[in-house]
Amino acid sequence: MDVLALLGDGFAGALTPANLLWVVVGCLLGTAVGVLPGLGSSMAVALLLPVTFSLDPTAAFIMFAGVYFGGLFGDSTMGILMNTPGQASAIASTFEGHKMALNGRAAQALATAAIGAFVGGMIASILVVFLAPALAAFSSSFGPAEFFALALFAFVTTSSVVTDDALKGLGSLCLGLGIAVIGVDGISGAPRFTMGVPELFDGISLVTVTVAILALGEVIYVACLARHLKDGKIVQPKGRPWLSKRELREAAPAWLRGTAIGLPFGVVPAGGSEIPTFLAYGLEKRLDARRKDPQFGKGAIRGLAAPEAAGNSTTGMAMGALLSLGLPISATAAIMLAAFRQYGLQPGPLLFDRAPDLVWALLASFFIAMVVLLIINLPFAMVWAKLLRIPRAYLYAGIAVFCGLGIYATSGSVFDLLMLLGIGIVGFLMRALDVPLAPLIIGMVLGPLAETSLRDAALSADGDFSTLVAGPIPIVLYAILAIVLAITVRSKVVARRASKRELVDA
């Protein structure tokens, strides 16, 4: 009952006019960046970081959460109407969603996606409310060895497990770790990798890195390599923007199965919602093959319902893992973790004790955001699709200007603007070479935690590094990591052998 009382206090804080406004603003921005090609919630949160430091922390994080959820509500719109998913998390939804649109059921496809995201997000939010305090209490037993194991788990899974090329993922991670160690060493006081430049003594701001890599790098990439891309033809939705009783009976089990698949991935740093959406789609396809009249390939509503629910349930649980464990499972969550630190807050058990008003208002805002997103997506999906008519030149030029203004407003330093440009070029090269960006962000965010934990563990054990595997929690984490790596290696070997057989047969 204490949880319900605290949640009630959270609703009292979240439903104030100011905070309610930021919920709506976050949901609108998240849906907009989800619909627009090449953008995403991670870029939106990165761009908003410099301009939200003047806000109350509660208002800022309520808006960030709205952007995070809204990005998943909106990114399937483009995939359904144009067969071009806005983000990787919407690829699985595109397979059957676009076929529904081509069959004259675009309005029903958009409704299926919106309701699926609502169901997944709402169930995840309910679980987070009851599980987050318990996870926070559990994390209070973590010491340096446990935090190092947790950071190492995040590093390995995000850089090698969820990427097509493990070497590129590890390279991106090492680049993030390298940026994180620039500056004055907190223990010895000696400058590291500063090359004698005084401006680097305080290190490189995570805000500058995230804006440069995620936003400015995308702008340069579009300007240099993606100018030839043309927008496809939008399928115009016709008919009723709601589902019939028969369609609801068809979609409901898929929504629940997709939600169940997505929930565990919210506490596993496996790259976000891409993997659970594909798993949910694959399960529905296997179940459909057993039916007398298989629908997959013809516009199966269950092939759209399950991935949408899986994506948002993963996002909801990810917020719980971020608040209670300080564990980011995606680039967007990593940026939000950095925002907590910019406000002088550390997610985990201390956050629930030191800032309960913020935590419970934020948890309450999840429920409000789900309702707001359903309202602005269910009947108005076609209105959001009109954003695709914005010329790319104007859109990305505005993003570039916003990048520069945001960084200069927070630091007032021309050096930071030059750093923004330099790292932006690095982000462009990473995109051009198909190097994943999430490992870099997570490496920079968790790098200081891993380094501090490793040093503290070694110092407390007089240099005996066996202390890193002395407790039950590190052993369990390393065992799970070993199992995940073994499964990943096996699946990639099997896939490679299958591709070779196809080449031989051809």
Automatic annotation (TrEMBL):
Keywords: Membrane, Transmembrane, Transmembrane helix. It comes from the Bacteria. Pfam families: TctA (PF01970). Residues 20-442 form the DUF112 domain. The chain crosses the membrane at residues 20-39, 46-69, 109-135, 147-163, 169-188, 200-223, 317-338, 358-381, 393-410, 465-489. The keyword Nucleus does not apply. PANTHER family: TRICARBOXYLIC TRANSPORT PROTEIN. This is Putative tricarboxylic transport membrane protein.
